[in-house]
Structure formats: structure tokens, C-alpha cells
Amino acid sequence: MKTTLAMLALAALIIPAQAQEKEAPKRGGDPAKMFEKKDTNKDGSLSLEEFIKDAPNAEKATAAFKKMDKDGDEKLTLEEVKAGRPARGEGKGKGKGKKKEDAE
């Protein structure tokens, strides 16, 4: 009986830890690293195809691409990607940061 309880307690600790490891990677990482990874042909720019590859929602990724493509050349430079990403704490997520008006 004690062995069964010990095994259940151990399983209760291991299963949540394994689930955390399998969570999707968090967005908001280093834009330069993301850019380098997505620039599969290493031409220094991202095509729409490169940008939306592996995106969970191609429609949203396409809209983001078009919004970031400031010069309309249908390619994104690293500068456009950096400029198009919200600064830390200014995204649409459910973060616990203070709103700008609260910070004043």
C-alpha cells in the first residue's frame, strides 16, 4: 500500500513537469534569431512563404507580414521585422505588466 501511494505521489510530480516541457515555445523572443531561422535561402530577407511556414495560423501570419512590409516590396528585412514587433510589455497578451496610463 505504501509503495502504491509513493508511486502515485511521484507520478503527480512527474506528469505536470513533462507537460510543461511540451508547451509551445513562447513568442517574443529575439527577432534576429527568428529572422535567421526563417530566412531559409539566406538572402537577407523573408518572403511571405518563409514568414508563414510553420505558423499556427497562416491567415494571421499573412496579415502580420503585410503590416510589417512598410515599403511594399513583398519581402521583410530584419529592420522591418524589429519595427513591426511590439516592444516588451506593449503586446496584446494577458501579461501582468502595468498599462501605460497606470505607470504614470
TrEMBL record:
Residues 19-46, 65-104 are annotated as: Disordered. Keywords: Signal. Residues 56-91 form the EF-hand domain. Residues 1-19 form the signal peptide. Residues 20-42, 66-104 have a biased composition (Basic and acidic residues). The keyword NAD does not apply. The keyword Signal applies. This is EF-hand domain-containing protein. It comes from Haloferula chungangensis.
